[in-house]
Design a protein that fits this description.
This protein is of the alpha/beta class. It contains eleven helices and nine strands. It folds into two domains: 149 residues, Rossmann fold, CATH 3.40.50.1100; 92 residues, Rossmann fold (3-Layer(aba) Sandwich). The longest helix has 17 residues. The N and C termini lie far apart (38 Å).
Length: 260
């Protein structure tokens, strides 16, 4: 298991260059009043494709050799990571890309994916099942599998979010990070705590899919988890083994929130 380092995140920042946006870190007067602190929002919803996932996908494709890229890209996604892979495939000269999406994926995300003239398959009842189907498809064709979070280069790409936050707000005391498979929180943790070991990193996860919370509590990664229905569909499913190794002993806690 290759663990990404702070240097890998700096390399990812160079790889991404002008391919992604440096999104703004905006002060929120309303939320600051409600919470009694100075609260800022990292607007990755303004990112190309609308999500931070494009950072990891693009950095992974950048790390592949020309021979590997020529064999095509395959991934499983609940939506946003798939959009990132399709975007990266175009950015690197029109590579062949195939995305598998679970049948319970939101229609809005499926429609966005259909906007790309690439292969899209709806298979599997949830992300975990779809991931297994997609990996078998990639093995059969010798294609590069672009995992959303169980991958060193993808995590390094997500870690550039942390670099930008620490650059824009050096005195930040705590980072609240949404948790699904763990790619974002592990990358952000490496970046932020290397720059300032005193910064607190707190994960936030839906009670419908508390795989990250359970992983920290029980000291082992819940790599497969059958989530209950949740509005946070992109966070549903298991927590990765590699992210678990990267955050244990470093992330202060993961808190659970209700659907309400």
């Amino acid at each position: 298991m290759i663990k990404p380092s702070f240097r890998d995140i700096l390399t990812a920042q160079r790889n991404l260059g002008a391919l992604i946006r440096r999104t703004p870190l905006e002060y929120s007067p309303l939320l600051s009043r409600k919470t009694g602190c100075q609260l800022y929002l990292k607007l990755e919803n303004w990112q190309k494709t609308g999500s931070f996932k494009v950072r990891g996908a693009t950095n992974k494709v950048a790390s592949l050799s020309e021979v590997e890229r020529a064999k095509g890209l395959v991934t499983a996604s609940s939506g946003n990571h798939g959009l990132g892979v399709f975007y990266a495939a175009r950015a690197f000269g029109g590579l062949k890309a195939t995305v598998f999406v679970p049948t319970n994926a939101p229609r809005s995300k499926v429609e966005k994916l259909q906007g790309f003239e690439e292969q899209l398959f709806l298979e599997g009842k949830d992300y975990d099942e779809t991931d297994l189907i997609a990996q078998e498809f990639a093995r059969e064709r010798g294609a590069a599998y672009i995992h959303a979070y169980e991958d060193s280069e993808a995590i390094a790409g997500q870690g550039t979010v942390g670099l930008e936050i620490m650059s824009d707000l050096p005195k930040v005391e705590a980072l609240l990070v949404p948790v699904g498979g763990g790619g974002l929180i592990s990358g952000v943790t490496i970046a932020a705590k290397t720059i300032n070991p005193g910064v607190r990193v707190i994960g936030v996860q839906s009670e419908a899919s508390p795989s990250g919370y359970l992983s920290l509590r029980d000291g082992r990664p819940y790599e497969r988890y059958e989530a209950a229905p949740t509005i946070a569909d992109g966070l549903a499913g298991g927590f990765g083994k590699l992210p678990f190794e990267l955050i244990k002993g470093r992330v202060e806690e993961i808190v659970i929130v209700t659907e309400e």
